[in-house]
């Protein structure tokens, strides 16, 4: 669920206006969030809980986005329109959609309250609220994104992604900076993928000798899995992309085209870099509506669930799915697909009084597009060990992986995953094991 921080005053006013409704709902399964995780898991339960034993989805937004395409949109390789559909078209038709936002969760009473004052009683609640983008955590960033002259871009929002390729095309010389924040992010490969696509464009336009490409990441590694990190270092070295580790963006001065960074190894050390193009991956974290519920969250504000069963550690009729949970996996669409099968079976076992027999292994995947027609398909588990599907060495750049990223994965998303039929590639991986030789 995309969350907009409207500020405390606005929320209070909304509450005063709408709480007079006092409309009560009751359901077997309540899903908070209509993003990738929410729609996917709701679709799985529709045949088990048809009306009147209904599923309720609480989601305020009217448009649903396939966000993994935002990288290709920013690189000029896909159209923005291909990434979105009306929310009404993707929420399961037999589920009850409340176009609203949950502002209070009373877990001891199996009840939530929405911003309009609706009260929802649930038997099972699945929290799938996603991550919130905290643009304002970086001083100057919001104003810079609004200023066309500042040349600041981000693929991380539908409001900003459409300007990214235009700004790439405007850049003719100078320094192009790409950043990764000191927080968890969704699709952690995306901040460097857009750097590769921009670099490829400038190279093909014969502008590359005039432009220094720099990737500043807050992480101590270029990628969390060593096998793929080694491959990405080679990509950067071969294309003269400078990578600075543990370097965090802390301020943007758009009027002067300056970015201020902090050395995380020595936090007192701060320095300014001039830029001609700046791509920012904003800080992210759990939504404000979730963080305030201390009985539900861990110290960082994420829904506190068991990393294997996805069941809440305290409230056994609450489960979490996707980016808002405390599971230490990479936050990707592929992770949600794998988690959704585990969560579905565990909920059904729990309702039947049976022990939970399915466990999430931390599977996640990141198609690391390095250029048009080239992609490293990273797949790995909780231990950051490769968990590859195909009978080839996936640390290499492949055309077929790029085609899967551009065409196959969107098809799977709209036609299978959001309808509850795609659980990730585990079955495919098992079938292809026979061909895995000399890897």
UniProtKB/TrEMBL annotation:
Single GO term (MF): quinone binding
Cofactors: FAD
GO CC terms: mitochondrion
Signal peptide: none
Annotated localization: Mitochondrion
Biological process terms in GO annotation: sulfide oxidation, using sulfide:quinone oxidoreductase
EC number(s) recorded for this UniProt protein: 1.8.5.8
InterPro entries tied to this protein: FAD/NAD-bd_sf, FAD/NAD-binding_dom, Sulphide_quinone_reductase
Keyword annotations: FAD, Flavoprotein, Mitochondrion, Oxidoreductase, Quinone, Transit peptide
Reaction equations catalysed: ubiquinone-10 + hydrogen sulfide + glutathione + H(+) = S-sulfanylglutathione + ubiquinol-10; ubiquinone-10 + hydrogen sulfide + sulfite + 2 H(+) = ubiquinol-10 + thiosulfate; a quinone + hydrogen sulfide + glutathione + H(+) = S-sulfanylglutathione + a quinol
Predominant location category: mitochondrion
Residue span, FAD/NAD(P)-binding domain: 28-141
Function in brief: Catalyzes the oxidation of hydrogen sulfide with the help of a quinone, such as ubiquinone-10, giving rise to thiosulfate and ultimately to sulfane (molecular sulfur) atoms. Requires an additional electron acceptor; can use sulfite, sulfide or cyanide (in vitro). It is believed the in vivo electron acceptor is glutathione.
Family note: Belongs to the SQRD family.
UniProt name for this protein: Sulfide:quinone oxidoreductase, mitochondrial
């Amino acid at each position: 669920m995309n969350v907009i921080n409207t500020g405390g005053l606005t929320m209070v006013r909304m509450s005063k206006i709408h709480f007079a409704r006092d409309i009560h709902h009751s359901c077997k399964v309540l899903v908070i969030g209509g993003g990738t995780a929410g729609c996917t898991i709701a679709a799985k339960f529709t045949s088990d809980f048809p009306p009147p034993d209904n599923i309720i989805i609480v989601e305020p937004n009217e448009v649903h986005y396939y966000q993994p395409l935002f990288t290709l949109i920013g690189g000029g390789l896909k159209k923005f329109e291909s990434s979105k559909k009306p929310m009404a078209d993707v929420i399961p038709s037999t589920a009850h959609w409340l176009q609203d936002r949950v502002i209070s969760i009373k877990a001891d009473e199996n009840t939530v309250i929405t911003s309009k004052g609706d009260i929802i009683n649930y038997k099972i609640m699945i929290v799938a609220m996603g991550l919130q983008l905290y643009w304002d955590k970086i001083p100057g960033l919001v104003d810079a994104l609004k200023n066309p002259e500042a040349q600041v871009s981000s693929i991380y929002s539908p409001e900003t992604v459409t300007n990214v390729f235009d700004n790439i095309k405007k850049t003719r010389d100078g320094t192009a900076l790409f950043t990764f924040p000191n927080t968890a992010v969704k699709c952690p490969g995306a901040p460097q993928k857009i750097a590769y696509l921009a670099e490829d464009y400038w190279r093909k336009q014969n502008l590359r000798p005039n432009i220094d490409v720099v990737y500043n990441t807050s992480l101590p590694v270029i990628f969390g899995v060593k096998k793929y990190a080694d491959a990405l270092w080679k990509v950067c070295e071969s294309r003269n992309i400078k990578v600075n580790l543990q370097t965090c963006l802390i301020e943007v001065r758009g009027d002067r085209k300056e970015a201020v960074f902090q050395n995380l190894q020595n936090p007192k050390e701060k320095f300014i870099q001039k830029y001609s193009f700046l791509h920012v991956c904003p800080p992210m974290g759990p939504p404000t509506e979730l963080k305030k519920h201390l009985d539900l969250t861990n110290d960082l504000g994420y829904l506190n669930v068991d990393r294997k069963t996805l069941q809440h550690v305290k409230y056994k009729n609450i489960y979490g799915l996707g980016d808002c949970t405390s599971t230490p996996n990479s936050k990707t669409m592929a992770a949600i697909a794998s988690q959704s099968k585990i969560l579905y079976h565990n909920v059904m076992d729990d309702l039947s009084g049976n022990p939970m027999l399915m466990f999430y292994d931390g599977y996640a995947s990141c198609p690391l597009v390095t250029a048009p027609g080239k992609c490293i398909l990273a797949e790995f588990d909780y231990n950051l060990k490769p968990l590859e599907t195909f009978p080839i060495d996936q640390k290499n750049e492949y055309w077929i992986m790029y085609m899967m990223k551009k065409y196959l994965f969107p098809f799977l998303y709209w036609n299978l995953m959001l309808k509850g039929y795609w659980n990730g590639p585990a079955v495919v991986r098992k079938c292809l094991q026979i061909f895995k030789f000399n890897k």
